[in-house]
Structure formats: structure tokens, C-alpha cells
């Protein structure tokens, strides 16, 4: 495909070789940094009701989560390019400092405005900590050997996904309180900073005469921010078909067009246009977006099924995601080792997308009486599929681009995965809401609108505890409505997996390079 770079091309300048022990030590620092950043996005959900109860500002609740997601996604491509200009290690440490400072600020917040501002900056640091570990690993380890190490980076996601809500619930219920949901990540980030400072020794980068493409960065960040605001707040803060939605769509379109024009003329663009002539990069970005949609869809909405339909506690519902995490961990590490041993990688995303699809298919059989064994089997399949896809897609992309484009390509794939995740949450949420209200409307029509209509309205938007406190007839109706709505959500996951499967089929099996 045009723009591909095969193993036979001349090797570009690479850093000095590292011993396996040095690589493992560096990997530990990178994993700690990724763990802290991912915990930040998952730990706060459990604490939000308590935070709002203490600080007030229920009308701005969604901004506590959206602010971090917005800046994390929008800043990811910029971190990659800046690391080309200023150096990986320096940018990684800057990201850690931003993260540590904003986490402390969030922990000391005394009102919602302060907390949202701190979360905004926390997202900027998180964007760097999400993209730069993959880029640094690409500098340190050759593609042929990278699989065995990248699998461990992928497994961090699963640990943070389950560990975050469980840890958040424990801290909120403990004498430490919700503020330690932010403080707890600081020691890990400090340790990661020290490890990287002592062990990561990359050769000095030649001073670049190219200017940073600030105009391109502004357009890319602005367009991504507009899209993220639309996906995060649409259907909640304002209707999808409303003036704010139209304004955000127009802003995103104008800035996207501006980014295309600016990047085509820039001397050193943030997102080089020639990457989009590279087939593996395009396919890897599309597949990552589809995988992100599946991943965030099941992560966000499965707990609702478990807590509302099955009646599990938040802690128990978090434990029910362990099969997914164990599947992700096992598949991520195993596929990484097999890729390093055989050099063959395409089979894993192909198999992984099939497993994601079959996992969603299994979940479509869930109802109000389903066994938790069936839930565990379905989410385990999805976890195995995610483990075979996430890191391998990044590895394949890194292997297919020039070394000079490694940072831009890696951060772009991460960007598209996060953007896909936001699209997944918005799409799954819209589908679930429409089906849920349709089910409730049908029940109200059957009962003539006289049987607990006010209870029905409050039940749809209430907490699991409030739903299970409703009168039996109304409670059964609400739980049945949620069960049917979740069936539609899980059904939607199957065509998304099919799209990902078709995309990865078009991958060209490029041999993994033995040199960096």
C-alpha cells in the first residue's frame, strides 16, 4: 500500500541497545504512569454522588467527568509531536508534573468550579501519559521484540478499569474520604517520575530548526474539543437536535477543514498528511476507533444491567467485570509473546474482533433471570478480544511507518481509540435511552397511565436503590424496561465488531522489523 515501510528499508538512526533488565525497569515506570492516569478516569465515578453532595453543583455533575475526557482526547496528538521536538523524556516528565499538580489541586477542591478546572488540567496530563509510554517503548524496543512488552502495557488498562471503581468505593466509605480518590494516584506518579529519571537514557535529539505547528495544533485540538463536547453533553445538557449541537457541529467542521489546509502546508505538521496514505495507519486508526466504541460501551453500560436488573451492589458489579479483565490480561500478554516469537500479528486482531462480536452476541441472551455465569462468559470473550486487538493495532502501525513518524502515528491511533470510545458511549446511551422510554411508554399505555405514572418517571432516572424501593408492580416494569433496553445496547455491539473485523481483514501482513 502507498506509504508503507517494510522491514527491508534502510534502518534509521536508533538509540543504544538496552538489556532486558533495563527494558523491564523502564517498563515498570511506564506502567506506573499509565496506571495512575487510567485510575484517574475510572476512580472518580464511584465518588461522584458523594462529591456532589459535599460541594453542590448537581447541574454541573457531567463536567467533572467530561472535562478530563475532553482534554485527554484533544491533547493526545499534540503530545506526540511535541515529544519529537523537545524529547520523549522531558515531555513525559512534564505530563507527570501536570498530572501530579492537578491531582493535588482536585483533592483540595472546595467547590465544583475548582474541581472542574483541576480535572481539565488533569486531562491534559493524562493525554500525555496515555500516548507517550507507547512512543517511548517504540524508541527502546525493536518491533519484533516489542510485542512481549506492549502486552503488559495493555494489561494495565484492565487493572485500572476494575481497580478504579473498587478503590473509589473503598476510599469513599473509609475515613479517608473522596479526596483521596485524587491523592492516591500522586505517590504512583512520583515513583514513575523517579524511575524514568534514573533509568530512561535516550540519546540527545538533534536541535530541530522546525517550528512547532501551533496553528495546526489549535485547529486539531479545537475540532476534537468540539466533537468531544457534542458527544459528552449531547442528549444530557442539551438535545441532539438543538442549537448547541448545530453550533458544535459547525465549529468542528470549520476547524477540521482548517486543520487539513494548515497541515498540508506546515513544515513539520502535528499530524502529517502523508500518514493517511499509509494503509496500515488508516486501517489501524479505524479499527482502534471501532474497538474503542465496543470497549467503552460495555464498560459503561454493563454495570447498569448488573445493578438495576440483577440487583447487585456497586462492589459486586465491579467484581463481575473481573472475567473481562482476566481475559484482557491473558490475551494481551500471550498475544504479545507470540507476536515476538513468530513475527505474525494479523491473526490476533482478526481473532480478537470475532471474539468481541461473539461476546456481545452472548450478552444479548441476558434478561431478568439470567445466570451470572452467562454474564461472566460474555464479558470474558470481550476481554479476550480486546486483549488481542488494542496493543497489536498500535504495534502494527508503529512497524509500518518511518521512525520519524512513530510519535505522530502512535498518538493518532490512541486519539482515534479515545474518540471512538466517546462515540460509543454517546451512541449506546442514545439507543438505550430511546428504548427505555419506549418501554416505559408502552407500560403506561397498557395500564391506562394511571398506575404509578409518577413512580415510573422517577424510576427511569433514579439510582438502583431508588428503583428497588419502588412498589413491586412499578419496580418490575422498570427493571423489565432496563433489561430490554440493555438487550438493544448489546445487540448494537455486534455490528460494530463486524465493522472492526472487516477493517482488520484488509491489513497487509508486514514483517516486524528487528531493528528499531
Automatic annotation (TrEMBL):
UniProtKB keywords: Membrane, Transmembrane, Transmembrane helix
Membrane-related topology note: Multi-pass membrane protein
Subcellular localization: Cell membrane
Residue stretches spanning the membrane: 26-48, 60-78, 90-108, 114-137, 149-171, 177-200, 212-233, 245-262, 282-302, 322-340, 347-366, 372-395, 415-433, 485-507
SUPFAM superfamilies: MFS general substrate transporter
Domain Major facilitator superfamily (MFS) profile: start-end pairs: 26-512
InterPro entries per the UniProt record, alphabetical: MFS, MFS_dom, MFS_trans_sf
UniProt name for this protein: MDR family MFS transporter
Gene3D superfamilies xref list: MFS general substrate transporter like domains, Multidrug resistance protein D
Amino acid at each position: 500500500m502507498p506509504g508503507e515501510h517494510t522491514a527491508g528499508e534502510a534502518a534509521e538512526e536508533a538509540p543504544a541497545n538496552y538489556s532486558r533488565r533495563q527494558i523491564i525497569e523502564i517498563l515498570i515506570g511506564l506502567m506506573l504512569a499509565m496506571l495512575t492516569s487510567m485510575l484517574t478516569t475510572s476512580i472518580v465515578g464511584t465518588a461522584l454522588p458523594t462529591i456532589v453532595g459535599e460541594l453542590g453543583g448537581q447541574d454541573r455533575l457531567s463536567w467533572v467527568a467530561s472535562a478530563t475526557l475532553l482534554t485527554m482526547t484533544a491533547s493526545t496528538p499534540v503530545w506526540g509531536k511535541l515529544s519529537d521536538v523537545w524529547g520523549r523524556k522531558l515531555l513525559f516528565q512534564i505530563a507527570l508534573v501536570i498530572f501530579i499538580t492537578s491531582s493535588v489541586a482536585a483533592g483540595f477542591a472546595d467547590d465544583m468550579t475548582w474541581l472542574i478546572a483541576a480535572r481539565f488540567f488533569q486531562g491534559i496530563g493524562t493525554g500525555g501519559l496515555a500516548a507517550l509510554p507507547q512512543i517511548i517503548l517504540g524508541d527502546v524496543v525493536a518491533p519484533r521484540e516489542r510485542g512481549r512488552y506492549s502486552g503488559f502495557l495493555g494489561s494495565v488498562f484492565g487493572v485500572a478499569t476494575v481497580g478504579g471503581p473498587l478503590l473509589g468505593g473503598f476510599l469513599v466509605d473509609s475515613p479517608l474520604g473522596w479526596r483521596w480518590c485524587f491523592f492516591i494516584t500522586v505517590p504512583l506518579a512520583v515513583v514513575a517520575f523517579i524511575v524514568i529519571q534514573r533509568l530512561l537514557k535516550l540519546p540527545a535529539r538533534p536541535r530541530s530548526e522546525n517550528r512547532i505547528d501551533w496553528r495546526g495544533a489549535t485547529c486539531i485540538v479545537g475540532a476534537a474539543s468540539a466533537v468531544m463536547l457534542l458527544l459528552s453533553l449531547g442528549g444530557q445538557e442539551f438535545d441532539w437536535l438543538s442549537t448547541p449541537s448545530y453550533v458544535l457541529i459547525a465549529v468542528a467542521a470549520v476547524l477540521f477543514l482548517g486543520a487539513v489546509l494548515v497541515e498540508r502546508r506546515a513544515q513539520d505538521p502535528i499530524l502529517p498528511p502523508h500518514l493517511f496514505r499509509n494503509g496500515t495507519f488508516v486501517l489501524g486508526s479505524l479499527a482502534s476507533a471501532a474497538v474503542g466504541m465496543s470497549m467503552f460501551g460495555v464498560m459503561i453500560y454493563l454495570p447498569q444491567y448488573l445493578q438495576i436488573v440483577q440487583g447487585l451492589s456497586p462492589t459486586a458489579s465491579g467484581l463481575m467485570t473481573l472475567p473481562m479483565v482476566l481475559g484482557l490480561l491473558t490475551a494481551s500478554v500471550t498475544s504479545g509473546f507470540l507476536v515476538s516469537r513468530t513475527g505474525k500479528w494479523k491473526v490476533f486482531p482478526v481473532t480478537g474482533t470475532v471474539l468481541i462480536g461473539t461476546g456481545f452476541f452472548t450478552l444479548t441472551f441476558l434478561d431478568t433471570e439470567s445466570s451470572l455465569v452467562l454474564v461472566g462468559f460474555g464479558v470474558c470473550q470481550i476481554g479476550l478480544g480486546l486483549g488481542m486487538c488494542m496493543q497489536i493495532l498500535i504495534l502494527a502501525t508503529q512497524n509500518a511507518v518511518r521512525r520519524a513518524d512513530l510519535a505522530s502515528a502512535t498518538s493518532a491511533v490512541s486519539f482515534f481509540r479515545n474518540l471512538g470510545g466517546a462515540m460509543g458511549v454517546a451512541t449506546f446511551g442514545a439507543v438505550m435511552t430511546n428504548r427505555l422510554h419506549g418501554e416505559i411508554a408502552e407500560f403506561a399505555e397498557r395500564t391506562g397511565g394511571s398506575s404509578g405514572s409518577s413512580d415510573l418517571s422517577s424510576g427511569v432516572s433514579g439510582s438502583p436503590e431508588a428503583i428497588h424501593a419502588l412498589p413491586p408492580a412499578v419496580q418490575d416494569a422498570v427493571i423489565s424496561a432496563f433489561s430490554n433496553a440493555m438487550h438493544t445496547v448489546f445487540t448494537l455491539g455486534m455490528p460494530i465488531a463486524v465493522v472492526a473485523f472487516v477493517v482488520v481483514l484488509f491489513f497487509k501482513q508486514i514483517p516486524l522489523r528487528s531493528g528499531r
